[in-house]
Amino acid sequence: IVAQFSGRERCSLKRMCLFQMTVWWRALILLSFILNCVDSHALSPVVQRNKYYNSFRLTRSTRIRVQQLLKKYKEQHLGNKHFEDRSRQLKDLPLLSTDFYSWLQLPDWDRLHTAFLNMQIYWNMLERKRKQLEKEKTEQVMARVVRSTLPQSIKHIQLDLRDLMSQVSSQVSTSSWIKPTSPTSMNPESSKTVWDSRVEGYIILRDLDFYLTKLARDFLLLASKTHL
């Protein structure tokens, strides 16, 4: 009887040890998961700040492209590389004037959301202008006139804007924002002279230059806030 009782006791002790080992393993797995979450959270501001700086650098390089194209556009299409007309505006383009304190207090989600939508507007405007220039280019080739490289230059800027929109979209997605699936529609003016059409291209590039300056400041501000 004693031997039988000792055997049952040994089985009970064995089961107890297995139970304790299972509890310890579960505790270790849970602790490892918590530590991983803490490490990820600690690294996220650094990763996010680097993303903002990357967007800032791309914005700055895109602005240089725009400035170069604007100079070439004024020389080839307006006949004067020093042409300036600040009085003319396009109603479809985003507003460039912003109150400083309102801009400073704007929530990050709204700032990025607005940036994405504004870049989408500029992309669409450039697309319309690029197609128009390609049509003119075809007519020039048929008339044996010197071919223009403006459409290719606009395409390069569009690619930069697309990359910027992709970066902003990934940054805003962390705030559960869904990227719009349909582009902003543009309503072309019914009556427009050849000169008006050419000046329109100047206005688009001129305002895009100013807007990219503002957007670069947005990314610098967002990057600086990740230190807090």
Offer a quick outline of the entry:
Its main location: secreted. The protein has helices spanning 2-77, 100-104, 108-142, 150-173, 194-225.
CATH architecture: Up-down Bundle
Distance between the termini: 72 Å
Please tally the β strands and state the result.
0
Summarize the main sheet. Answer: none
For the residues shown, what is the average pLDDT?
80
CATH topology, anyone? Growth Hormone, Chain: A
Please indicate the count of domains: 1
Instruction: Tell me the fraction of residues in β-strands, as a range.
Output: under 5%
How big is the Rg? 30 Å
Low-confidence stretches: 1-5, 38-43, 175-186
Helix content bin: over 70%
Number of helices: 5
Globular, elongated, flat, extended or rod-shaped: what is the shape? elongated
What's the level 1 CATH class? Answer: Mainly Alpha
Family: Belongs to the IL-6 superfamily.
Keywords: Cytokine, Secreted
GO cellular component, one term: extracellular space
Protein name: Ciliary neurotrophic factor
